[in-house]
Amino acid sequence: MGAMLENLEMIGTGFSVVMLVLALIWAACALIGLFFTRGTKVEAKDAEKPAPSQPALAAATPGVPPHHLVAISAAVAATLGGGYRVTRIAAPAHKVGDWPLEGRIQTFNGHRTRADWAAMRPPLGGAAQNDKRGNRP
Amino acid sequence: MGAMLENLEMIGTGFSVVMLVLALIWAACALIGLFFTRGTKVEAKDAEKPAPSQPALAAATPGVPPHHLVAISAAVAATLGGGYRVTRIAAPAHKVGDWPLEGRIQTFNGHRTRADWAAMRPPLGGAAQNDKRGNRP
Amino acid sequence: MGAMLENLEMIGTGFSVVMLVLALIWAACALIGLFFTRGTKVEAKDAEKPAPSQPALAAATPGVPPHHLVAISAAVAATLGGGYRVTRIAAPAHKVGDWPLEGRIQTFNGHRTRADWAAMRPPLGGAAQNDKRGNRP
Amino acid sequence: MDGTATETSKLEQLWHLTAIADVTWQMAVMWVVVGVLFYLAVYRKFEPLLLVPIAFGALLANLPTEGLINAPAGEHGGGLYYYISKGVDLEIFPPLIFLGVGALTDFGPLIANPRTLLLGAAAQFGVFATFLGAAAIGFSPMEAGAIGIIGGADGPTSIFLANKLAPHLLAPIAVAAYSYMALVPLLQPPIMRLLTTEKERKIRMRSLRPVSRLEKLIFAAMVTIVVILLVPAASALIGMLMLGNFLRESLVTERLTKAAQNELINVVTIFLGTSVGITMTGERFLNGDTLKILGLGVIAFGIATACGVLMAKVMNLFSGTNKINPLIGSAGVSAVPMAARVSQVEGQRADPGNFLLMHAMGPNVAGVIGTAVVAGYFIAWYAN
Amino acid sequence: MDGTATETSKLEQLWHLTAIADVTWQMAVMWVVVGVLFYLAVYRKFEPLLLVPIAFGALLANLPTEGLINAPAGEHGGGLYYYISKGVDLEIFPPLIFLGVGALTDFGPLIANPRTLLLGAAAQFGVFATFLGAAAIGFSPMEAGAIGIIGGADGPTSIFLANKLAPHLLAPIAVAAYSYMALVPLLQPPIMRLLTTEKERKIRMRSLRPVSRLEKLIFAAMVTIVVILLVPAASALIGMLMLGNFLRESLVTERLTKAAQNELINVVTIFLGTSVGITMTGERFLNGDTLKILGLGVIAFGIATACGVLMAKVMNLFSGTNKINPLIGSAGVSAVPMAARVSQVEGQRADPGNFLLMHAMGPNVAGVIGTAVVAGYFIAWYAN
Amino acid sequence: MDGTATETSKLEQLWHLTAIADVTWQMAVMWVVVGVLFYLAVYRKFEPLLLVPIAFGALLANLPTEGLINAPAGEHGGGLYYYISKGVDLEIFPPLIFLGVGALTDFGPLIANPRTLLLGAAAQFGVFATFLGAAAIGFSPMEAGAIGIIGGADGPTSIFLANKLAPHLLAPIAVAAYSYMALVPLLQPPIMRLLTTEKERKIRMRSLRPVSRLEKLIFAAMVTIVVILLVPAASALIGMLMLGNFLRESLVTERLTKAAQNELINVVTIFLGTSVGITMTGERFLNGDTLKILGLGVIAFGIATACGVLMAKVMNLFSGTNKINPLIGSAGVSAVPMAARVSQVEGQRADPGNFLLMHAMGPNVAGVIGTAVVAGYFIAWYAN
Ligand code: NA
Ligand code: NA
Ligand code: NA
């Protein structure tokens, strides 16, 4: 019973410590953030117009590497003669976007999503998955 | 003389062990293979027709990365107007195909065969071999 | 005072050693170089004419990878029909040329110059610098 | 006769060269366990980066390979894993993994909405509750602490703490931690739905502000200082985590960031995984304790999930119009980034236009810090 | 007078700071040897990845660099290679190389045609025959075993075994092993042509079936179990080889596979090569034993090649219509993938339409397993 | 009453778990120093690859993290940096960095114009002059040597020598070395302009001949032999530098070259930087010696720059028409490649059509060899 009390004391202290530490970080973050957001708001007003000027490109960026974009645009221009505009380029299928933790996903999930477009090609027989065997394609 | 006899005994035992171990693995492999090949033969009949449907692509795969294929096809389509079909794309010269041990060749031979098409370009003066010095091209 | 004399002796010896060692290497280099340059001069005469035959290409090499050059030339040939010649291909902006110590610059400066053309794209909002965070583009 | 005798002795000799006689029934049973782990890792994709090496290490542990792990004796060197396992024994590998994790983690969503730190803190209650349960069913306090940390859903931290407090339980704790991390998409949703109303699940959160490089750098330094001052025993984990993150966010050390994100973490992962697996001998693994640990692990995950969700609901009582969707509370268990994805999926189930992913990343990475703090607290309490 | 005396003593002092007085004639001779190795490695491409570091290590060994290899004494630390060489002494580097080799190897052709395992086994007879020869000309049994393994044509295995049985012969054995591996295209063809008829060389083999992921995974686990049960002393080599292969074939641990194939194997190769080279001092290398070892090495390769070819012919007596082209028997010596290429080239010389490469990969990788088994057997016999 | 007492003791207990009481004023001051270093590294790009890890290590050193660096005691293992710092203590990391530096360095410009070796030698006078100054203001000879080497502008060499001669000064010496290397573009130009005439600055040099692979390989081997024979104590640094360069120039070991240029150097840089930083405790760093060292460092750089320029002018007295532009003399301090860039910029300021960059690379890489020679000389003189 004494042991249980001791354990309860340990837990009480421990959970308090965790809450305290993270609350302190919260407080510090909020304080620091205050300083940074004040600055941003002023800038934001100035920057309002130029930002939405390239929506097509911005919408496309999560999945498709920019130099591919350029290549695709060039190909389209060459084919259709210049009067057309690429409005949407999407990487197919189970795209996750390049939200910032993508790298960590890769580490902890262990299946590569797509380092390159190459991974998206249909499997061609037994050799098709060699890129997952670590060989250079 | 006793030493020689001892050595002979050691050799006899040793060679038997090696033959035994590898023969055992053979047996195990054959057994496991039996199970797998039975399955495959049935599938093979069903799959007979769709398989040869993309021979051009399949023939090209050993050397040329698929995303290059796509790019080449797109370029051809753009230039020739769509009525044509790419029937054969080959990487020039001393191509080894991507048979599975290519990676190991690289390790044990120490001269890079081709990680990229770039290696195939003609040497351009002294700077040409910088890719073999490990610098990024 | 004795200590100072001792220090002076140490310095005298030391600086002599450094000068001696590097002078010896100089001598060895010069000797070896003599052997090599004799060979080169003869070759140089033979090679005088072909060398300047591809000035456009040579001028372009510092920044633009040769396989891109080939691709660009092929694309131009395909599009314009062969009668044209690419006279200048330049990688834009703060190009540093590929002089040989570029790799070491990278190590000791810590800011990447350009491993690929992709780095040259304009920053696209907050996500733009992710390539500097080590994530694959 | 003599010839036959020689023949017999030769065969005997041959037999003694082999290790077939050393196979125990526990080994055979463990081969099945290894098979199950391989199946889960390869075909069900349960954290394969860790479970494949762990399972292969377990296979080696359950073959007569004492030559792989024996200590040096006289002039004979030790086995290969005698040396490689030093990285676990001496608590070197987990902080190195954290160096890579820091280089792979973006704390931006947390910095933009620092309230979510409390969600990451609340989820740690699962650790303490499980500690209590483990102590109640007979584990020693140090063992109970090592088991409880499974609820933190953080592999390297679990290995770090288990090695410190209860090294004999390292293997089952690591296996439980990584398996349940992979099971998060199955374990969490029922609890999340049970504890939230439809209306709560439809809460849309304000979009996050962008966070500048300077703010991220200050954050990394600040967390280092605060955590190490308050819980100095967590310094190896938090120090390396924030070193990796500082390298990443400085934007001027790209080479080092990449090395931490790739070379270092990959090589260490192979060694860490196999070192953990190689402790998984039949005698150690096939006993009641392992089953108890696997059971307590599920409980730990469940409580952690529930506490995260409930904390979000409590915080909403004080948040005016700027409500938190309680579905992101469950992400406080860490299990980065799976738990955040679960929040996203559950959120879209209630309202397809609701994007909770980035919001859930805040508690998700807060949970990593929280679990490291708990580990440091346990070490300070018990290990000195 | 005094001034001159000081001058003299100063020059003397300067002289003593240098190490010119320590140069021996053996060193000068070894510089020539190093030059030859550099030439072979750089201009003839004899396994440059290993021979360049070995030769550079040998250059360092034959300069007065005792500061590089001295053991720590009192408060002075040891030399750089005192520490790096521990990776060879403690038998850590060769298994790590095997981890990378496993991640680079496709056992598919072997699994598709497992008969070829016997070819890989037969080629090991070269090891035993050379053992006998070495013992006959006066080497001790342990030395003879380390020399014989050269016939296995497997660098890391040779280094592993030589370090265990006869560390003083490490350098010549490693040099012989890697040099002859590079000479395979010269050494094997005459033997192959001598032992086969034109008709045999024209045998076309049935094309190989594709092998699925599951089958490859089972193979890796099965080989691990069988070899370790029967030859437990080979567990470090076979365990790491199959761990690397399992990572590769699992297809779910790409990051780890790449780390094993690149970072790990490359860095370890630099250290392994230079560590081997730095044992190559004049006193150790410039003696009759080295010449004998180089001679025995050629014999070992020749016998191994012949046994592989002959075994194929023997097997054909029992194979009905599904004949083996005996040219692939020579690939059983391992020397991956050079020996398999030699089979291909010789096959096309007899019949330009015959593609033996993939068929020869079977015995080729079988030879790697076979040599590891032999090494384990030698260790079990002698090293306990 | 009792309850309150318990409450108090609990709080006390909590307090004792934290390390707030261990904060000293020195630590707080050091946080400011760390902040300055971070600012310089991140925003002013002062050698960030080294200064970011050093500064982060210094942050850890100035928090109550004795758990990170404590030696093992009884059955308790040591702290993480007890083990990682062994790479500095045992002088392993700096030679490994040099392995990578060698693989990244092209000695071509030096080989094409070997006269410039003398410029690299002359710049080493800064080291000796600073040694004398340091000895004069009260440092012991060994300390003075370690301080003087800052003038060599070579980070790994400075760390290597400081660790050998004066480990207690390691941190300020490393910080001074890397900071001043970053300041080269500010420190050198005034001195260069002061010591040269407009006409001299306009000298155009003959273009460099191309250098073949064979010549580069011979150079690497020759430098190894000459330096190790004459200054054997430099063998670890020069040996690894030239091993890396030989791998690079052989063109047949691309995998190994890349490993040395990337994986190895990056990972070692993280560990080296933080290991150096973690010695930077307040007590060691906040004293007069540090200020003196920072002051002496500037002097060392200045003298080295001046000597390089002056040597070029002296050499021009003997060079007939093939003059040297004295602006490349300053590049002899090493600080690769910054010092060479400074020469280029100053040259173009006098004559926009003058390209001195490649010419300046000669003395620049010669300075690396020169400083390693000086370090070896100091070690031979004092450390035996
Ligand atoms: Na957690
Ligand atoms: Na073999
Ligand atoms: Na220098």
Automatic annotation (TrEMBL), chains A, B, C:
It is found in: Cell membrane. The chain crosses the membrane at residues 12-36. Keywords: Cell membrane, Membrane, Transmembrane, Transmembrane helix. Residues 118-137 are annotated as: Disordered. The keyword Cell membrane applies. This is Na+-transporting methylmalonyl-CoA/oxaloacetate decarboxylase gamma subunit. The lineage of its organism: Bacteria, Pseudomonadati, Pseudomonadota, Alphaproteobacteria, Hyphomicrobiales.
UniProtKB/TrEMBL annotation, chains D, E, F:
Keywords: Cell membrane, Ion transport, Lyase, Membrane, Sodium, Sodium transport, Translocase, Transmembrane, Transmembrane helix, Transport. It comes from the Bacteria. It catalyses: oxaloacetate + 2 Na(+)(in) + H(+) = pyruvate + 2 Na(+)(out) + CO2. GO terms for molecular function: oxaloacetate decarboxylase activity. It is found in: Cell membrane. It is a multi-pass membrane protein. Its EC number is 7.2.4.2. The keyword Repressor does not apply. The chain crosses the membrane at residues 23-42, 49-72, 92-111, 118-139, 169-196, 217-244, 264-281, 293-312, 355-383. Its cofactor is Na(+). InterPro entries: OadB_MmdB. Catalyzes the decarboxylation of oxaloacetate coupled to Na(+) translocation. Heterotrimer of an alpha, a beta and a gamma subunit. Belongs to the GcdB/MmdB/OadB family. This is oxaloacetate decarboxylase (Na(+) extruding).
